[in-house]
Specification:
The chain has 424 residues and is of the alpha+beta class. It folds into three domains: 264 residues, Phosphatase 2c, domain 1, CATH 3.60.40.10; 57 residues; 70 residues. The chain has a six-stranded antiparallel β-sheet with strand order 1-11-10-7-8-12. Strands 2, 3, 4, 5, 6 and 9 form a six-stranded antiparallel β-sheet that branches. A hairpin with a 2-residue loop joins strand 7 and strand 8. Helix 2 runs antiparallel to helix 3, helix 6 packs across helix 13 and helix 7 packs across helix 13. The protein starts with 11 loop residues before the first strand and ends with a helix.
């Protein structure tokens, strides 16, 4: 969503994909991407990405997540006078209030809720607001960091008892979340960041339909090796191949250069001290008139009046300077004092022989299934991709092997989807 999404194409790549999965009849996930409409909008509000995973009977979860991704951008943009951290928190709070109110209005929707994870890319860095167990990650130089804390029973117990997540007893349910938007009148929202941006930083937002079946290291390695478009497709396909137990939603955003809107002024991205509020011409005119009156009074011998006028003009001038350069003073506070405790988990995501072997095995299994089920596949094209992937593996070109095996996997899945569609 942008007045001109092409204006950021040279410095920001992103892709988003949501899939119902293999075991659900409807998709209760929602997502939204709102890129800045221009340079000034970027400097003051940045680019916004949101993923929400709804919960509730009938269509309640679907409604809750949709309300969240509609309310959060709308309220965030409306609160233009607030610093971004406060505006984002208020947007999440407003979404909670709207979902709660709607849930109280009818028994069918009572208790409905949704997770919500929002990422804003700003000159000050990446800011995150979060409630639930959807996730936001950052990939930088093969280091994959989870910026959000899962509000789940497993994570809460692990944090409270200092027990590693993989040692939490099996009888503890893995799918219970401790926070969400909507079920309660008041929701506790986490804020994280801002995390400084640099060219090459790649962010992943996802629902637990991805983070459940696919390991963190696998997600990070795929995002490392593939373009955002190819990565979201491969991640959704891999989650489905591992059972697709839930709806799957993925957003990948990569910073490819300084954030300058196409056709805007050139140079480095505007930093905190450069983000200024324009001063209306009427105020400048009033300042100039005050100075002229003061000088005129002094010239006519009215020194006291002239002095008072000059002092008034100086005070008013100081006000204008504060308005121009101090408008974002609250931003300086939150930028200088990062919020939250993230990153909460860190993983190394280096393409290696072990991961390539797992991908090769998955592609092989998919090939066998296609052969046994007599799927109509363009085998010539598939065999060509697989041969290139095998060659890259043999020559230890693991990043290329990851890309090629993911391409083979997604090609086979697209052929299957096309066949299912044609079969009705």
């Amino acid at each position: 969503m942008s007045e001109n999404p092409e204006r950021w194409k040279h410095c920001l790549e992103y892709a988003a994909l949501s899939d119902v999965g293999l075991r659900r009849s409807n998709n209760q996930d929602s997502m939204v991407v709102v890129t800045a409409s221009g340079q000034q909008a970027w400097e003051r509000r940045g680019h916004l990405f949101v993923v929400a995973d709804g919960m509730g009977a009938h269509a309640a979860g679907e409604l809750a997540s949709r309300m969240a991704v509609e309310a959060i951008p709308l309220v965030y943009q409306k609160l233009s006078g607030n610093n971004p951290a406060h505006a984002l928190h208020q947007a999440m709070t407003a979404a909670n209030a709207q979902i709660f109110e709607r849930g109280q209005a009818t028994d069918d929707f009572r208790g409905m809720g949704t997770t919500a994870s929002a990422l804003v890319l700003l000159p000050q860095g990446a800011l995150v607001a979060h409630c639930g167990d959807s996730r936001v990650y950052r990939l930088r130089e093969q280091k994959f960091e989870q910026l959000t804390f899962d509000h789940s029973l497993v994570w809460e117990m692990s944090a409270a008892g200092r027990i590693p997540e993989n040692e939490v007893p099996d009888y503890v349910p893995k799918n219970i979340i401790t926070r969400s938007l909507g079920p309660s009148e008041h929701a506790e929202i986490d804020l994280e960041g801002p995390f400084p941006l640099q060219t090459g930083d790649t962010f992943l937002l996802c629902s637990d339909g991805l983070s459940g079946p696919v390991r963190d290291e696998e997600m990070g390695t795929i995002v490392e090796c593939l373009s955002p478009d190819d990565a979201v497709r491969a991640l959704v396909d891999l989650a489905n191949l591992r059972g697709g137990p839930d709806n799957i939603t993925v957003i990948v955003a990569r910073v490819t250069g300084p954030q300058q809107a196409g056709g805007g002024r050139s140079g480095e991205p505007v930093g905190l001290a450069e983000a200024t509020r324009p001063i209306p011409a009427l105020l400048w005119s009033f300042l100039g008139a005050s100075c002229l009156v003061a000088l005129g009074a002094a010239a006519m011998g009215h020194w006291a009046v002239g002095l008072l006028g000059l002092i008034g003009a100086m005070v008013f001038g100081l006000f204008l300077l504060l308005r121009r350069f101090g408008a974002d003073a609250p931003n300086e506070v939150w930028a200088a004092q990062p919020l939250g405790k993230g990153p909460h988990r860190t993983y190394r995501c280096r393409p290696d022989a072990e991961f390539v072997d797992r991908l090769s095995h998955t592609v092989g299994q998919l090939r066998d299934a296609a052969t046994n089920e007599d799927w109509e596949i363009d085998w010539h094209h598939f065999n060509q991709i697989q041969a290139e992937a095998d060659s890259a593996t043999f020559n230890a070109r693991y990043p290329a092997a990851v890309r090629l095996y993911c391409r083979a996997l997604s090609f086979m899945m697209s052929e299957l989807r096309a066949q299912q569609s044609s079969d009705g």
